[in-house]
Design brief:
- With 98 residues, this protein is α+β, with helices and mostly antiparallel strands.
- It contains three helices and three strands.
- It has a three-stranded antiparallel sheet.
- α1 (32-43) packs across α2.
- The radius of gyration is 20 Å and the shape is elongated.
- The structure holds L-tyrosinamide.
- L-tyrosinamide (TYC) binds at residues 24-28, 30-32, 35, 54, 57-58, 91.
Length: 98
């Protein structure tokens, strides 16, 4: 009997964890300044970056705010949703596997 084995697997089986896009969606009621504040507060963006991204969402309907690991993305989404709800704004924030 043959004892000769052939190694076919050379690629190490260490996969990177999946990443998640966090997006904000436009609506007709949330004030622009509130969205700008949310982006500064929860995503560490400058006022200029926040204002520009808010305008993109306002014009295009949605935009990716950042890409994070699952747990971070989930935390960002609930922080934004809680904050919007507490201020009675309908702002929506969602996540999607990249
Ligand atoms: N469209 C809103 C307005 O005109 C502003 C807005 C921008 C709301 C971005 C949500 O994610 C948003 N007041």
């Amino acid at each position: 009997e043959s004892d000769i084995g052939v190694a076919l697997e050379t690629r190490p089986k260490t996969k990177r964890p999946p990443m998640y896009k966090v997006m904000i969606l436009n609506d007709d009621y949330t004030p622009m300044e509130f969205v700008v504040h949310v982006l500064e507060r929860f995503f560490g963006m400058t006022h200029e970056q926040s204002f520009e991204l808010m305008l993109t969402v306002h014009k295009k309907g949605l935009a990716v705010v950042g890409v994070f690991s699952f747990e971070i993305a989930e935390t960002k989404v609930s922080q934004v949703m809680d904050f919007a709800q507490r201020h009675q704004h309908p702002l929506q924030c969602t996540m999607e596997k990249e």
